[in-house]
Amino acid sequence: MKKSLLDTLNTTSRHSRSTVEAVLSARRGERQYKEFTRTWKINAVIQMLGTTATELARVSSDLDIHPTKVRYQFEYSLDQIQRIRRQIKKPQPPKTLPVISVMSGKGGCSKTTFAVYLAQKLVLEGKRVLFIDTDPQASATSIVLAVNPDIAFEPDDTIAPFMMGHDDDLASKAIVTGMSGLDLIPCCQGASIMDLQGIAGDSNSSAEVVNRFWTLRERLAEFKDQYDVLIIDTPPTVTFTNIRCAIASNLIISPIAPSMTDICSSTGYENTLRDYLESLMEIAPEKSLGIYERRFLISQYDHRLQSHRNFAELIRKTYPTTYATPFSNLAEISNTNENGNTIYEERTAINSSATRKKALTMLDFLFNEVIEDIESLSKMENTEKELLEVSYG
Ligand SMILES: Nc1ncnc2c1ncn2[C@@H]1O[C@H](COP(=O)(O)OP(=O)(O)OP(=O)(O)O)[C@@H](O)[C@H]1O
Ligand SMILES: [Mg+2]
């Protein structure tokens, strides 16, 4: 008898099958999102929060928070940690809300994986993050929520109605995910209509069409008091959506894999995006781009390959603002992905603690660089600098 897709996936998935099962058996309207079940030992919480055992015990008692016994020790959930963190250190709203778009013309270069890992890392560092999925493939939506996006969501649940000018409400589209501190505006295939309709739709004047390129930027600025960072995952290739996301961002990060085709495609994308932005600035000189930082990232890197090392050097020469740490392709990232999780969601190593440690070290180095950018953006009074002068020049 022919095996069903679920059977095949069940036998090929070596680890947890629950996510695969949940995704494939989902029915429209059934929305059971992934829970975040990981807990932390007291010593780890002390380290995470930069506090002392005495202060942790005192704040826990003040807030009536009780860690639960996991095996032989008491451990805190992320939700409890976030509440304690807020009590110890009141969050300071950023002066400028960092809005980060991860974009590239090349498909499959790790945009979504990087964006989701970055969002989760920021949440673990105590940031309130809104993740906006603008890619109709909706990979980020399925990773973060463990749903089949095309079954779980309608275009009306996504950013699409806003992009098409039908609905100004974006806040109510944000889903509180299982990971305390991370909200997500989901996407789904049907939302692809927003790309062309979002610009050409029912606008009847060219001024309105030009204005549409800036509406996302204007709307996102209003999230300043609710979130510390906004992260946007975008579809590959230059789309109207990507141009609007670029204009809405003050930091754009583009992963580039170390291969000739990826480098060629990236330079093509860069030039095209730049041309579009320049044309828009000519049409609307009174508008500002406000993109402060343009960064590149060597993705899918394997340091053992001479060709990767050579191409990485070429990427760094071509784009001097490339992050020093490559986003390496690592076994532990693939392994946890098979569980429908990220490394941050898993409590322990899938294969070996050495591979987990290697991945966590790489992620720490890389995200320290990104967080430095985010911190300096947050402190800026005004990001009304021109991308074309500041970062593309
Ligand atoms: N650092 C990594 N280590 C291991 N596997 C990775 C890593 N980064 C990405 N991958 C895997 O590579 C594949 C492509 O990654 P991803 O979906 O993030 O790319 P993308 O650029 O978002 O693709 P698209 O253009 O289709 O949106 C996925 O299967 C992902 O799990
Ligand atoms: Mg993607």
Give a quick precis of the structure.
This protein is of the alpha/beta class and 393 residues long.
How many domain modules? 2
In CATH, the topology of the largest domain is named Rossmann fold
Assigned CATH class of the largest domain: Alpha Beta
Bound molecules: adenosine-5'-triphosphate, magnesium ion
Overall geometry: globular
Number of helices: 17
- Radius of gyration computed on alpha carbons: 21 Å
Q: Helix/strand-derived class?
A: alpha/beta
Are there runs of 5+ residues with pLDDT below 50, and where?
A: 8-16, 388-393
Corresponding CATH superfamily of the largest domain? P-loop containing nucleotide triphosphate hydrolases
Give the SSE string. HHEHHEEHEHEHHHEEHHEHEHEHEHHH
- Determine the mean pLDDT: 88
Strand order of the largest sheet: 6-7-5-8-4-9-10-11
> Approximately how much beta-strand content do the residues carry?
5-15%
Number of distinct beta strands: 11
Notes on the protein architecture:
This protein has 393 residues and is of the alpha/beta class. It folds into 2 domains: 39-88; 99-390, P-loop containing nucleotide triphosphate hydrolases (Rossmann fold, 3-Layer(aba) Sandwich). It is 46% helix and 12% strand. The chain is built from 17 helices and 11 strands. The chain has helices at residues 5-12, 18-25, 42-49, 53-62, 78-88, 111-124, 139-145, 149-152, 160-163, 194-200, 206-221, 240-248, 260-283, 306-318, 331-338, 353-379, 387-390, and strands spanning 39-41, 68-70, 73-77, 99-102, 129-133, 175-176, 182-185, 229-233, 251-256, 293-301, 327-328. The strands form 2 sheets. It has an 8-stranded mixed sheet, with helices on both faces. The chain has a 3-stranded antiparallel sheet with strand order 1-3-2. Strand 6 and strand 7 form a beta hairpin. It is globular, with a radius of gyration of 21 Å. The N and C termini lie far apart (62 Å). Bound molecules: adenosine-5'-triphosphate and magnesium ion (MG).
